[in-house]
Amino acid sequence: MSLQSALIGFLLSKMLPTPLSPQEIIVVQTTAVATGTMPLAAGFVGILPALGLLEEEKDGSPPIRLSWLAAIGWSFSVAFFGVFLSPPIRKQVIIKEQLAFPSGTATAQLISVLHRMPPPDTTLRRRSGYRAIDTEDSAQTASTDEPGNHQEASAEDDFDEREVVQREGWEDLLMSFLASGAMTLAAYFFPIVFAIPLFGKYLAREWLWSFTPSLSYVGQGIIMGFPTTLSMNLGMLVGWGILSPLSKYSGWAPGPVGDMSTGARGWILWVSLAIMCADSFISLLPVVYEYCIKIVAWYRPTKPGDDTETHEDLEVETADRLVPTKWVMYGLIGSICVGTILVWIVFGNDGIKPWATLIGFMMGGLLSILGVRALGETDLNPVSGLGKISQLLFAWIQPGNVVANIIAGGVAEAGAQQAGDLMQDLKTGHLIRASPRAQFYGQLIGSSLSIIVSATAYTLYQRAYTIPGPSFPAPTAYVWLSLARLLRNGRLPQNSASYMVLFAIIFGVIAGVKVMAAQRNHPYTKWIPSGVAFAIGFLNTPSFSLARLIGGIIEFMYHKRVAKSGGGADIRLIVIASGFVLGEGVISVISLVLKTYGVGVISCWGCSGGVCAGCPA
């Protein structure tokens, strides 16, 4: 999200009489990321849909669907905790430990190129999937080996890269935006466009094997990179091509394949949950170990001759550009107190006790540290695994209360999600010397704005569509609810336990190998399957994964054949992918308005036999 925000902010600033400076672009980027993070942090794609799936017989509570005002209150309760948590974490992981934060570093490199600045002084790792952007530093390095031609060639490449982005960036963004928007609008009026029975109508209807040629999914695949999308599709093949038929024909999941309670989709959900937990647990072990070692070192008595350099203040910013400690303390205390009261008002005493919400915030602070450290080293924020840890804790604190388990887990996960996403921007600001206080203001503004935007958008979508439903499956909602139910009654679908253990062991070993390979900087590390991405292939139907694989292949071939030649090709691909994602996002709002006012499909041609989910035909 940081890369796209910086790119779009740069292109928009070219329309102003005085274009924004690099530091101002970073503040714009920070505000945009804070705004975009809130729907995830506040659980609009997981927590709230899960609460809407509650059943009184199974869970002891009827479905909970928040009104617009209640959604505002819930959003406000978790909107600022991660923001006030960010300054002290920045001090530790960016200033003292100088963790890589690959996406934040890559964004700083991008901004330095676009603004013709000297490159940021860093030798840290870049984001996998994108090559390092050539800058004037590369030209100077080359000149030390072979002066003359190499220096001129590097300078020309650097100039060409900027010129391509500035000259063609708007055209690429507009064309990709229009193409994605046109396809999204066509799919609204002709549902078959996004439900192509590529493998035949029988497989599409009975086994959910269809193809959604969404350019937004393609753009997401480009941004995710080929290794991640490959892991996702390997998971899709195992989950939907092997385990789904196995569970169906063995009688373990006798219901319709897409049914989350009795069908194969609900059965393989448990296997994916085991994979995610095992992968997250193993991946976090080195982070926890290193953090414990540092804590012991901090409290160990200093001996004569010990290196005291670790106690040196490495902060490069002046006090007037930093967030005062007093603000942080008052903000944390205020956000926790106000958040606890609002959660109690929204969900009542029967939903979750105030003391449990307080523990959720404290748990969120601890998980934020682990998540941010993992993000800084690997560019992946393991919030899914961290959320499961919080659910396990609250199953012990408030046993049998499914509602409290989901809500408190969501409160804890929100802090980790928000702090992690905002830390990438703070890393970018640190490298480009943007004011941390200005970024802090941007985070507050973005989070405040997103409270209204997210709650309003969710309420409108909820009125127009069933969430979760055919158009918006929200698979993470089932993950939250299924684990909460398991922790309440301890019952698993038939024979799922043995497969959960088997896949947990397999991916625990794979995660261990991946961690060791990453520590040794082996070039093949990125090709070792990601357990989380593999599990996501189980959660989503094949139509979601296939289009992303196309994007991943485009990204791989583009960098192999085009971007390696230099120029603006590398940045250009990010611009096009951003246009794909933006186009569908904006036009989907128009589709929402059309559906709200009763404007339906034009033709259901090709949708007979239940091929197009949710189509009137």
Labels describing this entry:
single chain, 617 residues, mainly alpha, globular
Computed Rg: 24 Å
Secondary-structure element pattern, one letter each: HHHHHHHHHHHHHHHHHHHHHHH
Count of individual helical segments: 23
Instruction: Show unreliable segments.
Output: 123-155, 307-312
**Approximate helicity band:** over 70%
How many DSSP-defined strands? 0
Described by strand count, sense and barrel closure, the largest sheet is: none
Overall mean confidence score, pLDDT: 78
Shape descriptor = globular
Which structural class fits the helix and strand makeup? mainly alpha
Q: How much of the polypeptide forms β-strand, as a percent range?
A: under 5%
Give the termini separation: 38 Å
Describe the structure.
This protein has 617 residues and is mainly α. Helix content is 70%, strand content 0%. It has 23 helices and no strands. The chain has helices at residues 2-13, 22-41, 47-52, 56-59, 68-79, 81-96, 102-114, 136-145, 149-189, 201-207, 215-224, 226-249, 264-299, 325-351, 354-378, 383-397, 402-432, 436-464, 475-489, 496-519, 531-539, 542-561, 569-596. The longest helix has 41 residues, at 149-189. It is globular. The protein starts with a helix and ends in a 21-residue tail after the last helix.
